[in-house]
Amino acid sequence: MTVAFVTCDLLDDHPEKDIQTLIPSLDGRFFRSYGARKSFGGQIVTVKCFEDNSRVKELLATDGKGKVLVVDGGASMRCALMGDMIAESAVKNNWNGVIIYGCVRDVDAIAELDLGVHALASIPQKSNRKGIGEVDVSLYFGSVTFSSGDYVYADNNGIVVSKEKLVDL
Predict the structure, then answer these.
(1) 13: annotated binding-site residue?
(2) Quick check: 120 and 164 in contact, CB under 8 A?
(3) Any binding-site annotation on 37?
(4) What is the separation of C-alpha 154 from the centre of its chain, rounded to a whole number of angstroms?
(5) Binding site annotation covers 19?
(6) CB burial of residue 3 (10 Å; 0-12, 13-18, 19+)
(7) Domain architecture of the chain: domains with CATH
(8) What is the spatial distance between Cα 97 and Cα 82, in angstroms, rounded to a whole number?
(9) Quick one: DSSP state of residue 74?
(10) What is the pLDDT of residues 114-154, one digit of tens each?
(11) Global pTM value
(12) 133 labelled as ligand-binding?
């Protein structure tokens, strides 16, 4: 995979812009990269769901060209909000990436997919599917506000958010 950008450089190259930087929490919650795409970004689509990945599955089955799904899973460590089948759907539907404030599973399979994936951890337990979740709501975690329509950029250095597009991907 080629690296399209480096988040450090985005911050350095745009000092005049209001760019938020996700801050790792003091309790040890750090985002890890799970997908084959090591740098990814795009226009944000948000979903808030707790231990129910119904909306994640629905959204990633739609056209995601130029987009990144940001999921607030409440930092739950009890179940995964995305596995290999949903991640494969995201690739098929041209999503650039998924950022999950929660867990993923099937990490070996996800590591082979041309998709950016950042999550807090992995766990083999699947989530519930009761159709619960809110789409296109503002999310707040890691001292950053994620709003649908804004832009997010992620790599192994971290995650940054801007109201404006910073780079063409």
Answers:
(1) no
(2) no
(3) no
(4) 8
(5) no
(6) exposed
(7) 7-162 (3.50.30.40)
(8) 12
(9) T
(10) 999 999 999 999 999 999 999 999 999 999 999 999 999 99
(11) 0.96
(12) no
